[in-house]
Amino acid sequence: VGLSPNLDRQTMAEFSQKRGKRRGDEGLGSMVDFLLANARLVLGVGGAAVLGIATLAVKRFIDRATSPRDEDDTKGDSWKELSLLKATPHLQPRPPPAALSQPVLPLAPSPSAPEGPAETDPEVTPQLSSPAPLCLTLQERLLAFERDRVTIPAAQVALAKQLAGDIALELQAYFRSKFPELPFGAFVPGGPLYDGLQAGAADHVRLLVPLVLEPGLWSLVPGVDTVARDPRCWAVRRTQLEFCPRGSSPWDRFLVGGYLSSRILLELLRKALAASVNWPAIGSLLGCLIWPSMASEELLLEVQHERLELTVAVLVAVPGADADDRLLLAWPLEGLAGNLWLQDLYPVEAARLRALDDHDAGTRRRLLLLLCAVCRGCSALGQLGRGHLTQVVLRLGEDNVDWTEEALGERFLQALELLLGSLEQASLPCHFNPSVNLFSSLREEEIDDIGYALYSGLQEPEGLL
């Protein structure tokens, strides 16, 4: 059968290449034999063996560099070489698991280390300078993490509370002088730091600025019944206009379409905090630096003390405007909800956690603190705020399971699993308002990043601590 010219040339090229390789192998083999034969006379048997291994290694290197290789062969050599690397013995082998709790004999002293006096009594065992490292359980790691990364020194908490209280008094005096016609209630600092729910550092305080609304002139409308259709919010409607016309209340100047506008009130107070308050004088009086944050749409005050840094969130609030004692906040909302008031569920959630723990001496609040500290220390989990984590702990906390300290590790893993399952569905309902999905503000990319970090954390929980 005749072959085509192209196939003939390809066959000849392969043949020439294999032939040249064979001749090269024969030449290298002859050179190796010559070197080894003469090395036995000069170096002896041991030296000749070392030289032979080195020469064969050079030959293999030349073969691999000059000969084409199949992809499968490359992969095979790769995992073989990796297995050889993994099989390389360490200088200090680890003891077997069964002997972790037993004393480890000291290694032989190195030649450079000074030798001590020889022990004459064979019955006396040598004393170790440090105990052998033990493999800590997840429970033990959690308790150590809680001690080192969660607990806040009492002195730092006291200083933060003192600064927040002094700032509240100064700010209240300023508001009363600047806006004497507007009836504000007592400025009350509070938040997680005051409820024992702050983790890691005393760096955030809530300062409630309550409005005193006239009874009978205002009513609440659910956000879902407004044009915004937002279940998170409420509208504060002006009533009794036929008996108390517009202008009868000092808050009527902030009305938009018959509703008290949170947006207009926020803009007024933001301008006052940024331009009218003498913060250098107040900071000098309190022994710290204070300035309003201009980067955020919230009303934030940054406080820098020589012993801590503190953020004070000034929250304009409508407290107890109905029989359910709801707390509504003036919050920078977007779109049609811009004039509405955001319902703040933090006081209700904190009270529920406290009641559950008091009932069975449980560790729900400790679990929340651990989760907050873990997410705070992991950049991939930074999108998970206290509100997200509180819903997870509340959902788990309602179950009749073991909430003692001994079960804290199990509850920790259960919380991670619940978070991961919620991320898979892109849904985390609010515990006290199930129509609100707390994951609705997260982008798909953010959900993927958080989910991957949680999945990796479940595979190796110690890596989160």
From TrEMBL:
Superkingdom, taxonomy of origin: Eukaryota
UniProt keyword list: Membrane, Mitochondrion, Mitochondrion outer membrane, Transmembrane, Transmembrane helix
Entry keyword annotation includes Glycoprotein: no
InterPro entries tied to this protein: Mab-21_HhH/H2TH-like (IPR046906), MAB21L/cGLR (IPR024810), MID49/MID51 (IPR045909), MID51-like_C (IPR049097)
Subcellular localization: Mitochondrion outer membrane
Membrane topology (UniProt): Single-pass membrane protein
Domain Mitochondrial dynamics protein MID51-like C-terminal intervals: 157-349
Gene Ontology cellular component list: mitochondrial outer membrane
Iron is among the record's keywords: no
GO BP term, pick one: positive regulation of mitochondrial fission
Domain Mab-21-like HhH/H2TH-like: 399-450
Region (Disordered): 88-130
Family: Belongs to the MID49/MID51 family.
Subunit structure comment from the entry: Interacts with DNM1L.
The protein's name: Mitochondrial dynamics protein MID49
